[in-house]
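User: Need the bound-state model for uridine-diphosphate-N-acetylglucosamine:
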Amino acid sequence: MDKIIIEGGVPLNGEVTISGAKNAVLPILSACLLTGGWHTLDNIPRLKDIWTIKEILSNLGVVFEEDAQTLKVNSDNLNSHSAPYKLVKTMRASILVLGPLLARLRKAKISLPGGCAIGARPIDLHLKGLSAMGVDVNLEHGYVVASADRLRGADIFFDITTVTGTENLMMAAVKAEGETTINNAAKEPEVVDLANMLNGMGARIRGAGTDTITINGVKELHPVRHAIIPDRIEAGTFLIAAAITKGKARIKGCNVEHMEAVIKKLLETGMEIEKQGEDLVAMGHDKVKSVDIKTIPFPGFPTDMQAQLMALMCIADGWSMIRETVFENRFMHVSELRRMGADIETNGGQALVRGKGVLSGAQVMATDLRASASLVLAGLAAKGRTEISRVYHLDRGYQDLDLKLSRLGSKIWREKY
Ligand code: UD1
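Assistant: Bound-state model below.
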């Protein structure tokens, strides 16, 4: 296994290019199951989660051709409708193949998903929506076993906004008979990217990006060429890297519209961020002002940036209240940040951080994807040496984070242990 070593205290200086968004690629690759022919996807990041979904698709009979950042995908010869536990267990988003398999084959058998241990994360809303579309859904021996003679449009209301739930039902509905409405739909940019890709395939989807999405089923779809949107969470993580090291970075290839909540909050901390076309030029300052945040679905402050912002608040100049409302158990980074000298009290979904201006290097353990990123950020700011073990969590969702930081001047490298 790899560990990451950081000698902290070096200000960032240079440029970095943002990769394609992990959370957009996962549903978009799953959508390639909807019809045969060669799909071409551009701006694909190299990530462990992408390998996982490709393995799940290969197991169904999908074939791939790839070069540096382009992936060609063909599902002409599907020979299975099943995603087994050994492939699904590491990634909750594996459930995204359920909707398209039902639309194409009218049957699917998917192991109940695993993924980050950040709360119970059920899939009841995905299944309830599919049932409303006429799918017979059963849970058998740890598998979702679903089948339908025909899929029919339905009026669906989500009790809680769910990103992959919205995506799964959108993919199930594109070839259903009649009209499907998803009320209280997720508005995340990755949902919009999927809808754009599906419309490029001939689907009829309106309202993606609002909380009501309407899908009129079509009989036929065709292959498409589609470029993945930039990863707004990776871009936000580099903004915080500039702030926490009191450095300067040009972050290239961002979609600023997807990042308003994060940019506004970081400006409140006193850092400078200048928009220059698709680039963000970020500059950190000696003094970091403490801010409060509450995570909420898009366009609010994203839960996927909560751990990274908490690392920044550890070196701020006062008290910060961080409220996590999307997931019920997303403070696993707290105990590791405390090992680095952070002063954080948690109470349910709230964390009170007393910024102390400094952190000290320590041996820490990554526990989930975004928690890993917060430890890297803390390590960049800390005095002395930080060693982060279990960085396979980081590799699920960040392409070469350590290499990109090293090119920005950070003293960061990997070692085997
Ligand atoms: C997606 C993102 C993840 C992000 C999260 C919230 C992907 C691949 N992952 O995860 O990075 O942190 O959105 O922005 O896009 N819930 C239910 N029942 C369901 C579904 C969800 O109760 O059937 C609850 C969850 O437990 C959670 C909340 O709804 O508390 C939001 O979860 P959801 O939006 O579904 O997260 P994911 O789609 O898994």
